Amino acid sequence: MNTTILIVFFIVIVVVYTGFMIFMNKKRKSQQAMLANTDFTAAFSDADRYLHNFIKNEVPYLQKEMDGQQIEALTYANASYNNKDAIKDGIKDGLKGLATLRTVRFTTLQTPKYLVLNRGELHLFDTDTDGDISEHYVFNPTRLQESTIEEIPLTGNLKAFALQKGEHTKAYKLTLASKSGMMEVVIFSALVFTFASTAASPFSMNAEKWKEEIVIASDFLKKLGEQYPNLKVQIPLMPD
Questions:
Q1: Which residues contact 27 (CB under 8 A, 6 or more apart)?
Q2: Cα 235 to chain center, whole Å?
Q3: Alpha-carbon span 168 to 170, nearest angstrom
Q4: Closest CA to 47 of 198, 178, 218
Q5: Within 10 A of 141 (CB to CB), how many other CB atoms are there?
Q6: In this model, does residue 96 exceed pLDDT 60?
């Protein structure tokens, strides 16, 4: 490859990267302006309507799994997954590939998870790679009283995905007591999945959808904390 081609290639890369950064900066400013101009007192008064529409249009299968029982609140959940876990999965997948002489490529996937609050119980739904419900865990009041929640710092991928829903988004580690021990998931004050294979497009500019997803997830945290004071957290943008 001669020098002229290298220079042209470099210029194209710089232009594309600059354009991307300008676009993301514009998106972020638009997002911040939307949040600054949103009447969240009024928005939170519509939380039940947002939830009803979200269930109907986005996750009707959760209502089916609940056998028609009312869903009082819901949020997205993520595996408690850090850089060490990612490295371990990378090594594990590499060893699997070697075992098959690289004829099969293995990739550990994090699939969508959902938390549903109903009549004092918390339901955790896990899905498989086809999007079907693969596990349904139920945590009763006794288990929830033994559970804990804490705000966690936004770093790395956690921060990147959280900021898609605005600079006020917070992350929490919810540790749920079960028969077999403690189960950890990460949840946010907005509807957020933390892996590219499950996350919504970061280029969405739908301000109304952002608002509704913030309200739905924040309302989940609010109702969880009202029913279980040990699981109460500070929620950004929540009216006093």
A1: 203, 205
A2: 16
A3: 6
A4: 218
A5: 13
A6: no
For the record, the structure tokens of 105 come out as 């490529």
Which pLDDT tens digit goes with each residue over 44-68?
999 999 999 999 999 999 999 999 8
Backbone angles phi, psi at 54, to 5 degrees: -65, -45
Q: What average pLDDT does the chain have?
A: 80
Distance CA 13, CA 232 (A): 47
**84/109 Cα distance (integer angstroms):** 15
3-class SS of residue 207: helix
Q: Are 86 and 131 in contact (CB under 8 A)?
A: no
pLDDT tens-digit series, residues 110-153: 788 999 999 999 999 998 877 788 899 999 999 999 999 999 99
Across the beta sheet with 73-79, the strand order is: 133-139, 121-127, 113-118, 73-79, 181-188, 171-178, 148-152
Q: How far apart are CA 18 and CA 237, in angstroms?
A: 32
Dist. CA 176–CA 113, nearest whole Å: 14
Is residue 71 within 8 A of residue 51, CB to CB? The reply is yes
| Cβ atoms < 10 Å from Cβ of 182 | 11
Question: By the 8 A CB rule, do 231 and 183 touch?
Answer: no
Residue 203 to residue 122: CA distance in whole angstroms: 32
Q: Given its phi and psi angles, is residue 102 left (phi above 0), alpha (psi -120 to 50 degrees) or beta?
A: left
